[in-house]
Design a protein that fits this description.
Helix content: 40-55%
Order of helices and strands: HEEEEHEHEEEHHHHHHHHHHH
Number of helices: 14
Strand order of the largest sheet: 4-3-2-1-5-6-7-8
Strand content: 5-15%
Radius of gyration: 22 Å
Largest sheet: 8 strands, mixed
Structural class: alpha+beta
Distance between the termini: 39 Å
Length: 352
């Protein structure tokens, strides 16, 4: 992935529907999706799951196709029509963080009558103009903005030119939200092979002098970044235990940049997959920030949620929450990284 992904243009309803999975990072189901735009460019993509209580939103760099997710408090999605005041508060919040001047609404599900009723009701309480009101199944869509009694029209995501452009740009869309959850899932805590790898890593760590641990953590990341699949379970466990030290954690965090962010996502996803609960929080945080920098917003949300459940006071976890709350785009990492590097340099001067 390049540091400035090309702008992908969607010039039709079919193009918009083809773009949404790549904007979200996965193919939405049973969802209400909001495309917030400023000057006709998408700056925030929000989603409310119609079968759960978890709302997500994705902030986009103005010239990028990628973004990061934002979890906020909102009305229970299953009762959207019973709490339109809550929906209005949710939309006002997203408008305030995105600066959007219009929004498009897309409902996903099997029942077009319900979907069209939802998008109409939400449009009525939207604080900004609504450009499109669409209901989509996996094969057809109904565009209510074009007719009071819309007819179903066929569409296909994979064969559309927008999807082809996204794939050529290195953008991927997972088959569903469950696939995102899998990327941040740890191992079975009772897995004997994993427990043995953790014990072996602990023995190795005990034999390593403290002053050698930070450069070792950096070396492991740099050595395996181009091919994380080569890391065995013990190496993953050792890296997880090394970054339990905040100095080691921050050192490998600063190795991340936007051109290599996808590689860091792959590396830390592999570490998380081999890390027992005792050591999981720092690797989950590093996976979360790599996901944010890479524009994988759904994965950021999942990592932040897991960290919040495991250790709500963990410092880097709270930074993940702040990134979501402020809907910070991935380009903000460039500034944050410079500040962190300056702070690290000042710390080194004081220590010398």
């Amino acid at each position: 992935m390049t540091s400035t992904p090309p702008l992908i243009r969607a010039r039709s309803h079919e193009g918009t529907l083809a773009a949404i999975p790549y904007l979200m990072g996965f193919h939405p189901e049973n969802s209400l999706v909001f495309l917030f735009a400023a000057d006709r460019r998408v700056v925030l993509t929000a989603r409310i799951d119609l079968t759960s209580k978890k709302p997500d939103a994705t902030a986009h760099d103005i010239d990028d196709f990628h973004g990061d997710d934002l979890s906020t408090q909102a009305t229970e999605p299953a009762h959207l029509l019973d709490d339109l005041e809550g929906v209005n508060r949710y939309l006002n919040h997203l408008v305030s963080v995105s600066g959007a001047d219009q929004v498009s609404l897309v409902a996903y599900g099997d029942d077009p009558d319900t979907g069209l009723r939802i998008v109409k009701a939400v449009a009525d309480v939207s604080p900004i103009p609504v450009a499109d009101r669409i209901h989509a199944t996996t094969t057809h869509f109904w565009a209510a903005c074009c007719s009071s009694d819309p007819e179903p029209e066929p569409y296909e995501v994979e064969s559309h030119e927008v999807a082809a452009q996204a794939v050529m740009a290195g953008v991927t869309a997972l088959p569903g939200r469950a696939a995102v959850v899998d990327l941040a899932a740890g191992p079975d805590p009772e897995d004997p092979a994993c427990r043995a790898a953790q014990r072996a890593a602990a023995r190795q760590l005990k034999a390593i002098k403290r002053r050698r641990r930070l450069p070792l953590a950096e070396a492991i990341v740099q050595r395996h970044l181009s091919n994380p699949g080569m890391m065995d379970a013990t190496t993953c466990a050792l890296l997880a235990q090394l970054v339990d030290d905040i100095q080691c954690r921050d050192a490998v965090w600063l190795l991340m940049d936007r051109p290599t962010a996808e590689q860091h996502v792959a590396l830390w996803s592999r570490v998380v997959a081999h890390t027992l609960p005792q050591w999981e929080v720092p690797p989950l945080c590093l996976l979360g920030v790599a996901a944010w920098i890479a524009g994988n917003g759904a994965l950021l949300v999942e990592c932040a949620s897991r960290v919040r459940s495991a250790d709500p006071d963990y410092s880097l976890g709270r930074i993940l929450d702040d990134i979501q709350a402020r809907a910070l785009p991935p380009t903000f990492w460039d500034e944050l990284r410079r500040d962190l590097q300056d702070d690290r340099g000042e710390d080194a001067k004081r220590a010398s």
